[in-house]
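User: Can you recover a sequence for this backbone? Please restate the input before giving your answer.

Assistant: Of course. Working from this structure:
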């Protein structure tokens, strides 16, 4: 690898660092690629591109191979510089944070309002055969049928009583389930007693929540082809994607 540099003088003069990449396997292109990087206070004018093209030609002559120039700046290129770059073997790139001009007319963020719906059974009252159970009825309540199958008590109460998504939530309304006395009520897996009847108020509870996908603040850098307008976008999390404009 060899390194050359040139300096453009004048108001706000800057240094343009140029590196020639040869056969070290760093680029998948025939011949050499000359990388030029500059961060001047103003946009680069055509004189800077002409100077860079001269170095590219020198590298090609010295190596007797084709050399492609890649010029990268953080401030952009004047119209005349873009015309020169298009006519030469020089690729002009802008590497910078995205601006409003980059994002105008693009879908940059999608705002979503979602609704989490869950069925609710409240004011649950259990009637058992015989004496009522002692102590609290708190815990995981199940109904055990004579064949040994079990079903959650709340699941049994809300079954068929709620509205599907896309329709308004079901208002709270009274529900009762009648048993023949052969079914058992279980609390945390332990027998409580034989069921006679369960009543409750059942309805839907909707909980809306908002979230966003994308957004300008997720983009760290944009690499723009100053001639064609094609862009590569780099996100803060390491993802990247490209667009034709």
């Amino acid at each position: 690898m060899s390194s050359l540099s040139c300096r453009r003088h004048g108001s706000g003069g800057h240094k343009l660092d140029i590196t020639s990449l040869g056969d070290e396997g760093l680029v998948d292109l025939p011949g050499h690629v000359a990388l030029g990087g500059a961060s001047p206070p103003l946009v680069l004018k055509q004189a800077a591109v002409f100077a860079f093209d001269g170095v590219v030609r020198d590298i090609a002559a010295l190596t007797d191979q084709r050399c492609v120039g890649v010029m990268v700046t953080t401030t952009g290129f004047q119209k005349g510089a873009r015309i020169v770059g298009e006519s030469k073997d020089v690729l002009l790139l802008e590497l910078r944070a995205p601006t409003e001009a980059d994002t105008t007319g693009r879908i940059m963020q999608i705002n979503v309002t979602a609704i989490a719906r869950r069925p609710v059974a409240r004011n649950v009252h259990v009637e058992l055969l015989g004496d009522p159970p002692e102590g609290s009825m708190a815990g995981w309540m199940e109904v055990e049928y004579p064949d040994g199958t079990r079903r959650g008590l709340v699941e049994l109460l809300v079954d068929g009583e709620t509205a599907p998504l896309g329709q308004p939530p079901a208002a709270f309304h009274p529900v009762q389930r009648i048993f023949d006395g052969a079914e058992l009520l279980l609390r945390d897996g332990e027998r409580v007693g034989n069921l006679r009847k369960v009543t409750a108020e059942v309805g839907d509870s909707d909980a809306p929540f908002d979230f966003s996908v994308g957004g300008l603040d997720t983009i760290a850098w944009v690499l723009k082809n100053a001639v064609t307008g094609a862009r590569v976008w780099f996100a803060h999390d390491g993802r990247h994607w490209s667009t034709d404009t």
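That completes the design. The chain has four helices and 14 strands.
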